[in-house]
Amino acid sequence: MNTKPLLRPLFATTVLATFTFSAPVMAEGVVAGTLIENTATATYEDGEGEKTVDSNTVTVTVDELLDVTVTSLDGGPVGTAPGQAVLSYEVTNQGNGPEAFTLIADPAVAGNDFDTVVELIAIDTNGNGVYDDGVDEILTGPETTPELAADEAVTVFVVVTVPGDANDTEVSQVELRADAVTGTGAPGDTFAGAGVGGVDAIVGTTGASAIANGSLVIGLITVDLTKAVSVVDPFGGTGAVPGSVATFTISAEVVGDGSLDALVITDAIPADTTYVAGSLALDGNPLTDADGDDAGSASDAAGISVDIGTVNGGDTYEVTFDVTID
Amino acid sequence: MKTFAKIIAAPLLIASASLGVPALAQETPSVVVSGDVKQVEVSTNADGEEVTNLVDIDLTVPGTRLVFRTNYENTTSEVIRNFTLTNPMHPSVRLAPDADEDLTVSVDGGDTWGSLSSLSVTEEDGSTRTATHADVTHVRWTIAEIPAGGSGQVQMPAVIR
After folding, report:
1. Is B106:B138 a contact under the CB 8 Å cutoff?
2. Is B152 on the interface with A (CB under 8 A)?
3. Does B54 touch chain A (CB under 8 A)?
4. Which of A29, A38, A44 minimises the CB distance to B35?
5. Smallest Cα distance from A181 to chain B, Å
6. Does domain A222-325 have CATH number 3.90.180.10?
7. What number is the ipTM of this complex?
8. Tens digit of pLDDT for each residue in A270-305?
C-alpha cells in the first residue's frame, strides 16, 4: 500500500498536538501592573536597649512590554489543489500584559510561483487545531485576535483560494503578520499610560509585530486509499469465526489532474488468517499469486502486491483478496 | 469551613505584627532608615565605553535592573551597636547575578543566613542543590557600630523577573 497519503495527515496531527501542549507553558515574566514594594527593617541597640525600625516603603510598578511571535504550525508546505486551502499559524503574546493583536494576511510574498486569494482569517475557537467551517470564529475587519493573556497563544487559520491556473509542484507562501493593538514600533518606543491599568506600554525586542510564512505546494495528483472488509461465515452468516472467509477490498482513487508513475498497492495478510490462493484480483480480473508473471503477487508471508503502474487523475482501482480466519 | 477560617486567620496575624512595628518606630528612632529605588541605565559614553548610571524609575519591565538603596543615619550622640538591616526580596524580583558575592543572604525566608555559595535549596523531591541568585528571599547587612551622627548606605541590586 502506498502509505504516503496516510502518513502525512498523521504527521501533521502530531506536529499540531505538540504545539497545542506547549502553548500553556508560562514563560517567566512579571505581569504588567505588578507593584514591587520594598521595606527594609533595621534592628539595633542604643542606650535604652534593642530597637526595631522600618524604612519607608518604595514601590515600582511594572510596565507593560509589547511583544509577539507568530509561527507557522504546518510543519512544511501544505499539499493542495486549486480551490480552498487552509494554513495554520500560532500567535503568542510574548509580552507581560493582556494584549490583542491585529492580523494581516498577505498572499503576495516575493518568490511565489502564484498568489492565492485570502478568503478569511479564523480563530481556532474549539482548540482542535483544525479549521472547522461554521464552528471556528471568522474574524471581521480589522481582523483582531481576542485579548491574549501574557504568554497565551492562539491558533489562527488563514483560508485561501488557490487559483485554477496553478501548476503541479508550484509553491506559494502566505504571510501572516500580528501587530499589537496598543501599538508597534522600534524596541523601546513607549505609549504612555496605554498599558494594563494605565501603566506605560513599551515596545519590546520584537517591535510588537511579528510575521510568519505558511507555505502551499500544488500536488495535483494524490491517491486516496480506502479499505473495506466483508465476512462470510461457514453457516451463511457474517460472523468472524474460524473458517469464515473475509474479503478485503482496497479502493484507490487518483485525485487531481496529471499523472502519477509506478503506483503499487501492497497490504499484509492479517495475523491469524490465511490467504485464499488465487483470490487476488484487480478490478474484478484475477491475478496470479506468483511474482513476476503479471501485475499481482500474493502469499501469507509477503502479503499482496499489485503494480498498477502509471495512473491518471480521476482513475479508480479496486484490489480484492480473500483470507480465511484460522 | 475550618480551612477557610485558617486562611483568614493567617493574614490577620501578619497584619497585626506589621502594625506593631511602626508603633515602636514612632518613638523618635535613634537611627533613621530611609529607602529609595533606582533603575540601572546602561549607556555608551563618548569613548564608546559602556557606562552604567542609576536613574529615577521610568519604564520597568521584566529584565529591568533595579537597585534598592537604604540609607541609615544615627541621629543621636551615642554609639549605635549591632545594627542589622534586613531587606526582603520581593517575589517579582531576583538578586542581580553580579551582586556582591559576600552579601549575607537567606534563601529560606530568613531562617538561615550566609553567603549565597554557602547555602543550598531543598527541592520538592527531597534533593538539594546549590542556591542561586533567584532563590534569595532576604539580604542582610550587619554593622557592629555606627558612631554618633554616623550614616551610610547599603544597596541591593535586583532584576525584575
Report:
1. yes
2. no
3. no
4. A38
5. 19
6. no
7. 0.79
8. 989 999 999 999 999 999 999 989 999 999 999 999
